[in-house]
Design goal:
208 residues; alpha+beta; elongated; single chain; 10 strands; 1 helix
Length: 208
Amino acid sequence: DILAWLKKQGDWIIKKLILAAIALILVTTSLQAAKNKYGFGGSIDKSLAVFGLEGYGRTSGDLIESTFSFFGNGVFKVNRKTYINFGIGYTSFSYNTNDYPGFSSNSFDLKLLGVTYFDKPDDFTPYIGYGGFISFITNDNPLIDNEDEYFVQPGLEEFLIALDGKFGFNIPLKENLNADVGIELKFYLSEYINLVPSLNAGVVYWLD
């Protein structure tokens, strides 16, 4: 029966087309999931204020007035929306020049953050970051003559640990290149500097 044979062949073709469509969807999804495995970029960070906690350390502006940092960053995929951000940076600490003229400190920093995007990282999306960093401090504090006794004024500890939280936005600029802007809140475990809110901006280039 020709009609029965045609119907059988038609059913077979339809099944093959359905299977091919499913396979295409799975392959496309797999390729999409494989995008944005890692990216590299840079960022700058400027403090908005410097606070000391009452009863612990000094008050705002007593020793450190502001900070400025720049980082080189690597971003590595954990799952679809979660990444690890590893950064190597440099921070300059500005002292209260009225009380501590000529004083300066800087640090070599290693930062590790977990980053969770609300959507795909190559789209416009907010994100949150959480983690911390360590700072290796170099102080350049001159000797001060005080009542014929020379002494060194307080400087930052040679090794600091800080907790770090961030909220920001990922903004596409062009293919694989995104701007990254956010507000960061650092909590230094230090006698002289504690809470430092800051403005952060940078770029990330995604490699597929």
